[in-house]
Structures are given as structure tokens and as C-alpha cells.
Amino acid sequence: MGDPRIPGRLQADLDGQLPPAGKAWVREHLSAHPEAAADQAERAALARRLRVDLAGMPVPALDADRRAAIWAAAAMPPPRIRRFRPWHGVLAAACLALAVGMLSLVRVDMPAPQWEESPPVRIATMVPDSRTEQTGRPGDAAFVGGIMDQRRAIEGLASAAPSPITTIDIPVVNEQSEDDSDRTAQEGREEAVAEADMGGMGAFMAIGAGGGGRNTLPRTKTAAKVDTRPSGGQPMAPPPVTTPPTTGESGRSRAAYTFDGTSSAQPAKPARPNTPENGVAVTGTRTRTMTAQGQVEKLNKDIGFDYEYDPRGPAVQPPLWQGVDIPRARNTELTHIAQVGRGVEFALNVRLADGEDDLSRQAGGKPADDRLDTDHRRLSESIRREMVPNLEVAGPSVPADLLPRLRTARTAGRQLVLQDGQAVERAPIPLDPADLGGLDAAAFTRRWGAVPMLPVAVRADQTFALNADTALVDQFERLLRAGTLPDPDLVRPEQFVNAMPADHPAPTGEPVALYAEAAPHPLIDDGRTLLVAVTAVTRAPTPGERRPMNLVVCLDASGSMTGDGLARAAAEIRGLLAAAKPEDRIGIVTFADRGRVLVAPGAATGDRVAALSAALARVEPQATTDVVDGLRLAYRLAADGAAPDRASLVLLLTDGATLAPALVDDAVAAVGAFRGRGIQLVAGVVGAEPAQPLAIQRLAERGDGRVVDLARSPLGLVPERLAALVADAKCQVVWNPDRVAQARLVGYREHRLKAEDFRNDAVDAAEIAADTRVTALFEIVPVEGGSGPFGTARVRYRDLREQRIVEQALPLGGTILARQPSPQLRLWAVAAATGEWLERGWWSNARAWDRNRLLAALVPNADPAPALAPGAHRLRAIITAAAPHLR
Amino acid sequence: MDRPAEAAEPAPRTDLVFADEPSDQDCLRRVMEGEPEAMDILVERYQADLLRTAAALLGEAAAAQDAVQDAFLRLCRERERLVRDPRPLGGWLATVVRNGCIDVLRARRPSHPVAEQPAPPAGEATEGEAVWLAVHGLPPLERAAVLLRYRDDLDYRAIAERLGKTVTHVGVILHGALERLRRDARLREVVHG
User: What does the angle CA A124 – CA A329 – CA A282 come to, to the nearest 5 degrees?
Assistant: First the structure.
């Protein structure tokens, strides 16, 4: 009876449950197996007996008490909403964590536990084997390298950006020498130093080294698999002839891998003789240009680091290298340092004393081979414990203060220099922003995540959607007050500008009025950079002018809204209801485990408003939440009530916690499905702790709407300003090449448009509510001796009330240029610079923004010092609160 | 040897409702409209079947009653959802009861004393009592399968539905139960006699 199905089949036959074919099969089986037939007969007898003896067993019935309890439950009204229980929250948090973990798995293809356990930075070090004769130079060099800030690095890898690893300087072992696993321990070793004090978001990729080491140090322990190839990437070039190690050659050689297959600007380095006098980048090494997959695999094998990379690599040395000294200290060479996104990658060549196995000496005299037997994790720990202090003692190798200083370099855009074996930090050096290092604008943006300053001869226009949102600043500020420095992704410099109060008079005729002013840049004292501000102001609302609303409130009733959140949201809704007119149509949808219609949309008459208000009191939060279902339901109801003469709106009131990363795409898709129906999404953020601000922003932008931070401006929802006044608002400034040499738009990185899309009304742009001021700042460098107007600013939008496209132009004549920046322009300039400083991107480095410069610029140099404007107070609070995090 | 298909004859539907009776959905709607008596119809309709399954799984009448009561209470709570999103009520209740029983079994597994089996009647047990005790001593799943099959005469498909197993697996469970009973000393005479 080898087949596990046979018992079941025999039993089914016994019980008459087999079809005829099955019965025939059983008969055949039993005739072939007489012992089975005997057993079967016995079981059949038992079954008959069971039938007889069990038949009389009593069947219980529900007793009277229980039936009464059921009857009572049926008589009670069912609970509309399940009560929130604490463990629901725990469960939701666990699910969220799981989802986040899965997401990171998908994105990075890296085992999650290792990700979690990875210290923020690991430094891989290795030395060539001193006992291998072929190297000739015992202890010739070691490699220390690492990457900080995993998140940025991984983002760079996942996108089409080039690999952040541009140079790896490591010894390699030829294939033949790896055959004998016993020898491998002698031929290389691989150490990973975990340095835990590198701070929060930094982290890392292990760069292991030493071909032989991989047999004794299973690379799966630490290997990170990261696909750096952009989809649709170019085919890899064939490897240069000189690159593969000569087979048959035994022993070890060193090679620097320059990940630069196609560059003309940074040609592969020629082979060099193995002498220590060779240059800065690589001492005594051969250089290879890694281009082909085979070599990648070879490299992976050699260094025990499982990843792929973009063979195209960065085409040139990044501009940040300018001003970075790479000195040739006696024993330590910084062979590479570059800012990658918001991280710093670096490579150090550490030359150890001749004739000694330094690592084993530094590890307290333990034989190296013993350590190689330990697993990678323990090894890392032992290295951290033993080697780093000893390296400090060894002095000339790795400066003790290197790692914290690298962190500073990362966060503050500092330049890090090694001088005489010491890491020396230099104040930021402003770079020439016009020097793109040979990159074109698109490549520059990909590489640095920033839009460069461009010569007007290359591109004369700046075209962008006039996005007036400022909620991210509000949320950034709240998080900062709570004691954390929020993620740089939350920073959009234009929102900082627009968060500053402005007092331009609102128009009375057209819905939008344009203003412009210019002055020498208040923060850039180079005698030539000017700051131009173009401001669009929308008409102030008048109650009689307002179109009737078709409003569906989509209220988050998930567990995180318990208490304050739900109460605030209800207060907002009641405020709106109080201001509603009978011709408005209002309904409320809640979502928790699914979307529910709390009150179906209908005319906002007195009775209905009372009913809506009463219904709000009944809402109780639940643990589970399905924002997608809620949004769909709200949009369906809004679409049902849409009419040309009404402003159709979905008002999402949430604390954002429900927009788990896994749901965001679905939510955005749900909103996107109703595009073209003329429904605007207004996202009101309630709750003390802002959650998922970027997801909310994305959702609102998809829904042709905006985000309002109701925690900052409670009861900020008024019917007059709820619906947008104008839709698809775009701005285009075209510079006059006779007057302007270079120009850049500050911020609006997410809202840039192609020049030709300005007049393409099918292109989605931004919606602006009534009584709103939205400003764009431009840094320009005028043509020396040039004259004439600076250019022309235009806005184009759809007037939602009259459903017509309007285009307005404002000539930027020479008269807009003032000798001194106005207080308003100065405030805007500091706001924009603060944004860039907090963004910690390329422009923060290039402009060398720091706390002192920003604060100094905030207060004009006058005696007595003028009082700070309200916006300046706010900026000063943000700058001083953020500064300690950025030191 | 070719493998025949493992299909049993289609089982008679147990959740059919005759035309002159209110349907499950009607009953739920009537309950929602403030007529709790309609719940009695549902209790009458399903309690026997549910109690049989629960008692077979748990081996105790009181625990079975608790499980079935809990299922009906849950039905009361979720009637709105079940009206909005109709599904066969018999299957829903059976699943709820089964899950409730599994929870009970899990909770009692580590410490539940075997002695809670009904004590054998005083004096010499009759053959029928011996069978009953032996069946009662089976593991819950096997006991339930044996009772549903040989006491209630359900076919494999119906047993599979109630126990949340496949039809094939029911045969395997029953085979295992019968093998265990064959080895049971109390039944030796019954079997061989």
C-alpha cells in the first residue's frame, strides 16, 4: 500500500462512496492483495456494527436558555460599527510593518531580516595576503570602502541612475587559485566592519573582498542583491581585452574596478606597474574597466557581494569632486569620495606596514584562519570590536573620527578631506552652479536629483504647474516640533516659499493676477545673481459668487482616528455644514473595514444638516480600514450628483495613517478612475501626528485637488475656498537671451512641464483655490552689459466658473529690478534656501546653505533691527529646530 | 493500474428551503425589520445539523451547544452584512461552528483530561456501550467523521463540507478511525465476533 490514496479509496468503497470505476479498481486491488482483502472485510464488519450501535445515539438540541439568548440578540439592533479594541491596533501595526517589509523586499530583493539587522553603515576592509609570494609586496594595501545612506543609494539603484559604486579597489584572486578550498583561507580574507554609530537613515551595502574568502565566508550571509540595471538598459559592451585575469596564473593581484564602461570623459585607467608611487586613485594596481556580465559575475564571486550594476556608470567625475583634496598621506589614501544622492560613498586605500600581517596583529594576534571559520556576523562583530580600535591605534590607517565626519559631510554638504591621515572637514565651498560637469540637464537631474541652472541659450523657458499646496511644510514643521528631522523627501522648496505670507492685492476682474519683482539675490553675494519672483494671486471669494457644491465627505473612521482625529474631523464637517446653502448637495461616507454611506447625498436643507450632524456623533472608529473602498464609494456618489453648474468635490478627512504604502497605488488608481468627471479631491489632514504626507499629496494631485493641513489651520475649510477657482494652472517664463545668461527655477521639481505643454490644455496641471498666492522664484545671471526686458511670464488656466481657457501675460521689464530686495523677496529667498537646505540635495551643497547664513539673511542688517514678519518667525523656528539635526 | 476518478455521487442538498417557507434571506430581513421571531425559523432550520457536527467534534453536548449558540449570536450581529452580501447561510453557519469548535479543541488540547469522556456505565458494559465509548475515545476529527458517517449517515461530500476537508480526505480519516477502532481492545470481540 505504497500509495497514500489507497486507504481512502478502500474506505470509500466500504462506505459505498466510490463511482463504478473506483469500485472496479478496488476489486482488482483486493484480488491482487489477499491480506488487504481480509482487512477490508474486517473493517466492513466494524462499519456495519458502528451503524447499528451508533444509530440510537441522541441528537442534542439547543436548550431554552440559549434560544432565549439568541432571540434577545435578534431583537437588539445590530452594532453598526465594531468596537475598536487595542489589539486591533497592534494587528494593524503588524500588518503595516509586514507590508512595509514586503515592499522593501520587492523593491530591493534583499532578505528583510538582514536589512533590518544591518547596521547603518558597514565598511568592508581587506588586505592582500602577505604570504602569497606573487604579490611581492606583503601588506601592500587594504581597501576600506562603504556606502552610507542605504535608502538613497537603493533608490538610485532602482531607478535608471547609475550605480553609486564607481570604484572598488580590491585584490582579486585568479580562478585557479580558488580551486583548493584550503588555500583560500590563506589567500584572502574578507572583513565587514559594522559601524553602528552612523546615524539613522544611513545604511549600506557590504563590499566584501578577497576571492578566497568566499569559500569560508558564505556570502549568502551578507550578500545584498541589488539590481542596478535600468530597465531597457543598453547592452553591455564587450570586455576590454586586457581585463580578465590570465587563467593559469596563480596567486593574487590587485585591481581597481572602475565602473565606467562607455565614458569618454573618464577613460579607463591604463595599466600601471605595481609600485606604491602611482598616483592617488590606486596604488600599485592594475585597472580594469568592468563592462561585461561575465566580469560582473567574476567580481561578485571575488568580492562575495552579489549585485549587478549599471555598466554605463557615471560618465564624468561629479562636480563635487572639485575642491576635494585627495592627498597622498603616507599610509592612507582617500581614493574616492562622492556624494551619491544624499549619501557619501568613499574608498580608502590603507597601506599597512610592510612585512606584517597587520590584520591578524591588530586582531589581537589571533590567527587569521581561525577567524575565517566564524560566520560573517560574528566576524563583523569581532572586527568592530577588535579591529577598529586597533586601527585607531595604528594611527596611519583609518582616522578615528572619519565615520562621524563622513556623516556630517553627508548631511551638511561638507567637504571631507584627508590630510596627513586625518579627516579634515572643510566648510562648504559654493560651487559654480552652471558647471554641470559635462552632464546634460536630464542626466544631471538623474544623477543628483536636482534641476540645474541652465544657460538660456540651451533652454530659454521654465514651464511648470502652478501648485499652491503648502501642507507638506505644515506637516514637516509638526514633525520637527515632535523632535524628529523629517525625511528630505517631504521638502519642496516652493512650498516653503508659498507658506510665507504675502500681501499682493487680489484681482477683481480676471480670476488671476500676476505680479513680478526682482533684486540682487539676498543670500548670494556674488554681485551678479538676481532673484526674480513671479506671483499669481487668485480672486478673493464672494459668497454670492460661489457655485453650489456637490460635496461628498469621505471620513476616515479607522482606529488611528480614535479620539482627537475623529472629533476634529467632525468639527470640520460641522463647520462646513453650518456654512452650506440649501442648493448645496452634501453626503457623508465613512470608511473603516469598508466604505459605508453614513448619510446619502442630498440638498443641504436644515433637516438634512441636522441629520448629518447627528449621524457624525454615531461614527465610531474601527481597527481595519479600507481607504480605497471609501474613496470609490465617495467618488461614485459625487459622480452621481455631478452637474455642470455645480462644483463637485470629494473631501477626504484622514490622519493619513490609513494610507499604508501598500494601499497608496490602489487609492491613487481609484481616484484616477474618476478623472475627467470634474471632481476635485480636497484632502484634509487631521490628527496630531502627520502620517504618510507624501501619499496624501500624491493622492490630491491625482485628484486635481489640494491638501489642507487642518491641524495647522483648524476649521480651515470654508465653502468659498473649498472648490478650486481655476484648474490646470500653468506658468511659463521665457527669458530674453539678450538680457539673461542663465536661469533656474527654484523648486517645483515635481511640477515641471515641457515648454510645448504650456498651451496643451489636455495636460494636467495644478488647481488653485480662491484668494491664494503662489510664487515662483527664479535665480538668474544677467548677461554682462545686456539690456532689454528680462523676459515674459505667462499663466494659463481654465476658469472653472465660466469653463473657458484664459491666458495672461506679464512682461518682465527692466523696471522690475530693485536695487535692494524688498522684505517680501528677502523672506521668500530665505524660505526657498531653507527648503533647499532641508532637502539636503545638490543645491544645498552648491549654495553652501547653512544655519547661520539663513538666519543672517532673515534679518536685514539694519540698526535698529526691524521686527520679524510672521513668516520670518516661522522660518526662524524651523531653521533653529532643524539645525541640531544637521550638525 | 489506472487510477479511477475519486468522485462520489452528488450529495443531496441539505440547505434547500421549500417554496412555502421563508428563505434564509427573508428571515434575516425580517429580523432586521424588528421581527426577532424570524430568527427562530433559522435556529430550527439549522440547529440539529450544527449541533450534531459540534457534538461530534467536541464530544460534549454542553460545549456543542455553546458553539452553536455562539454561531447564531454572530449571525445576529452580522445579519446586516449577510443580507447585503448574501451567501448560503447553512455553509456560513457550519464554518462558524467548525471554527469555534477548533478554537475550543486548541484551547483544551494541552490539559484537557481524557477522563472527561463519559464514564462507562456501572457493571459490565454492553456491546453497544463499548462501541460508544470506543468511538468517543477517538481523536476529535476521526470521532466526528465516524459519527457523521455511521450515526447520521451523511455521505462523504456532506461530511467534507461540515469538517472543512476534501472528499478524499474524509475517506482517509474514516479509514484511520476504523483502523484505530479495530485495534481497540474493547471492540476486539465486537469486531471478531
Answer: 55
Cα A413 from Cα A428, distance rounded (Å) = 6
Interface test with B, best of A1, A5, A6, A15 (most B CBs within 10 A): A15
pLDDT of amino acid A82:
54
A54 contact residues in B (CB cutoff 8 A): 131-132, 135, 146-147, 150-151
Instruction: Tell me what pLDDT residue A50 has.
Output: 85
User: Given A10, A60, A74, which is nearest B76 (Cβ)?
Assistant: A74
Burial (CB < 10 A; 0-12, 13-18, 19+), residue A469, is: buried
Contacts 24+ apart (CB under 8 A), A240-244: A240/A268, A240/A288, A240/A289, A240/A291, A242/A271, A242/A288, A243/A288, A243/A289, A243/A290, A243/A291, A243/A295, A244/A294, A244/A295, A244/A298
Distance CA A301, CA A304 (A): 5
* Total residue count of chain B as it appears in this document: 193
Domain boundaries in chain B? Answer: 14-115, 117-193
* Contact present, A806 and A794 (Cβ < 8 Å): no
Cα distance between residue A387 and residue A394, in whole Å: 10
At A520, give phi and psi (nearest 5°): -55, 140
A406-419 confidence digits (pLDDT tens):
433 333 344 444 44
- Residues of chain B found within 8 Å of residue A41, distances taken between Cβ atoms: none
pLDDT computed for residue A660 by the predictor: 80
Q: Does the distance separating the beta carbons of A42 and B171 come in below 8 Å?
A: no
Q: Residue A736 in contact with residue A791, Cβ under 8 Å?
A: yes
Residues of A in contact with B93 (CB under 8 A): none
Contact (Cβ atoms closer than 8 angstroms) between residue A635 and residue A671: yes
Mutate to test the interface with B, among A39, A43, A53, A629 (most CBs of B within 10 A): A53
Residues on chain A touching B48 (C-beta within 8 angstroms): 59, 61
Taking domain B14-115, whether its CATH number is 1.10.1740.10 is answered by yes
Do the Cβ atoms of A840 and A488 come closer than 8 Å? yes
Q: pLDDT tens digits for A553-604?
A: 999 988 888 878 888 888 889 888 888 888 899 999 998 888 888 888 888 8
> Which residues does residue A809 pair with via DSSP β-bridges, in sequence order?
A794
Element counts in chain A: helices (H) and strands (E): 28, 26
Q: Which residue of A has its CA nearest to B180?
A: A43
**B191 backbone dihedrals φ, ψ, rounded to 5°:** -70, -45
Supply the DSSP symbol for A435: -
Whether the full predicted model's pTM is greater than 0.80, yes or no, is: no
Cβ pair A75:B1 closer than 8 A = no
Q: CA-to-CA distance for A225 and A108, rounded, in angstroms?
A: 7
B156 — contact with chain A (CB < 8 Å)? Answer: yes
Secondary element (H or E) of residue A555: strand A549-556
Q: What CATH topology corresponds to B117-193?
A: Arc Repressor Mutant, subunit A (1.10.10)
The answer to whether A88 and A559 have CB atoms below 8 angstroms apart is: yes
Segments of chain B with pLDDT less than 70: 1-21, 109-128, 186, 189-193
Q: Is A335 exposed, middle or buried (0-12, 13-18, 19+ CB in 10 A)?
A: buried
Question: Shortest CB distance from A28 goes to which of B1, B153, B179?
Answer: B1
Low-confidence ranges of chain A (pLDDT < 70): 1-2, 56-60, 78-84, 103-432, 434-438, 447-448, 543, 860-866, 887
Which residue on chain A is closest to B127 by alpha carbon? A53
Place of cell 541652472: A453
Q: Determine the Cα–Cα distance for residues A684 and A416; give it in Å rounded to an integer.
A: 44
Burial of A112 (0-12, 13-18, 19+ CB in 10 A): middle
Residues 6+ apart with CB under 8 A from A174: A211, A245, A246, A247, A249, A250, A251, A252, A253
Q: Characterize the bridge pairing of strands A530-538 and A773-782.
A: antiparallel
